Amino acid sequence: MVRVRFAPSPTGLPHVGNIRTALFCWLFARHHNGSFILRVEDTDRERYRPEALDAIMSGLRWLGLDWDEGPQVGGDYAPYFQSQRLEIYHKYARKLVESGSAYYCNCSPERLDKIRNQRLQNGLPPMYDRNCRDKKIESDPTDTDTVIRFKMPLFGKTCFTDELRGEICFENSTFDDIVLIKSDGYPTYHFAVVVDDYLMKISHIMRAEEWIPSAGKHILIYDALGWEAPKFVHLPMILGPDRSKLSKRHGATAITEFEQQGILPEAMFNFLSLLGWSPKDDTEIMNKEELISRFDIDGINTAASVFDFDKLRWMNGEYIRRMTPKQLTARLKPYYEKWGWCTADNPCDDEYLDKVSQAMQERLKVFTDMKELGYYFFTEPTEYDPKGVKKNFKPEVADWLNELANRFDSLSEWDKPNLEQQTRDFANEMDVGAGKVIHPIRLAVSGLRMGPGLFELLEIVGKEKVIARLKRAANWIRENIN
Ligand code: GLU
What we know:
The protein is mainly alpha-helical.
C-alpha cells in the first residue's frame, strides 16, 4: 500500500519547490490508489508563522491536492500537527535513552556557543563535543534544563538506497550527536520525522534532494528504534533560468503569487508535474487524469530541472484556449471587477463579455494580459502606441478617419462583413492597400498595433464608440502630427 506524506514546515510562504514535492507525492499516491497525508511540521516554535500554514493549505486546495486522512473537522480532514504529538516523541526518546542510544544533556547554551566558535576558528565543522555522552544524566523530556541527544556511532558508514539514485553512504564520524528533544520539550525535525513516518506507515518518503544528508542520520535513528525505514525518493532540485537555485530574484516563487498573476491552477498543475518528471515522450499538455495514470517513479529525473517562466505562460495560454468563451468569461470577470471595468454602477453584459473572451482567447497567456491587451473593450484609449503613430498616423489619415466615421455611421447593419466591405471600398477609392487603412483604424479604436481581427473588434466595441474614437483620433492627428 502506497502511503506518502507532504510535510511542510510553516515558516514562510510555500515555495513552488515545496508544492512540486506535494504534487509528486499526490500523483504517486493517486496513481497507486494509495494515501496522501498532510503533516505540518511545526516544532520550530520560533519560526512558526500561522499565515504560512494558511498559505500552504490554500495553495494545496487551489491545485486540488486533497489529503486523505487526519482529524475530522466539520466534514473535512485537518492535517496532522506535530505540535499535538509531543507525548509520542517523548515516549520514543525515553526508549532511546533507556536502550543507551540517546542521552540527556545539560550543557548551557553559552558552553555550546563557545565550543562551536572554537571549532569554527580551528576550521572544523561546528559539532557538539559530546561532553554529556557518558555522564548518565537523569532527567525527563519535559525538563527545560536538558535536551536529549542521539548517540551517533563514532566509526563506520551508514548507507541507504535512494529509489532514483541507488546507494548513498555517509561516514558516521561526520554526524553530530544531534538533539532529538529540545529544551522546550519539542522534538527536532530529525526525530519527529522518523517517529511520524514510521507510525504513519509511510511507504515512500518523497522530498527534495537537499534532504539527502539528513537521510543518513534518520537511518541511524530507525535502526536504534529497531524499525525498518520507508523507501526514499529524493526529488531533483529546481533551478532558475540562470541555473542557480530558484529564488525570489528569478521572479515569483510563492505559489500564491502565481494565483494572483492569473495563472490557472490546471496549468500550474501540469507545469509543476513536468519539473523533474517526464512521461517519456514529448507530451506536454496533460490533464490531471492523464497525469495520474502516467505518473510513476521511473519517470522522475535526477538532473535538476529549470523553472521556465515563459513556458509556464505558454502552457497557461494553452489552457486558456481550451476553455469555452463562457468559461473564460467566468475566470476573467473577477479581474474586470478588480480593475473597475465592471462595477455595480456600470455592470457588464455577459453576452458582451463572452464576445470579448472569444476575440481575445487566442492572445492571452495569463488573465492579467487582458489589462494591456484588451482594455479598449472597456475603456477608451488614452494614448496611442508610439510606433504605430509613427507608422500609421500620417497627416492625411485624419481626413480618412473622419470620412470612415461618416461611412460607418450610415451602415445599414453593424457587423463584420459590412465593416470590412466599407473599409476595403474606401481603400480602393484612395488607391491604397487595405492595410494602409486597417492599421490606422485599429490604432484609433484600440490604441494598439495588434489584436484580434479588426472587423470583429469593431463589431464588438460597437458603433457609437467606434465612431467617437475615429473622430477623436482624427483630431489628435491634426493636433499632433504635421
Ligand atoms: N519539514 C520538512 C520541510 O520543511 C520536511 C522534509 C521531509 O520531507 O522530510 O521540508
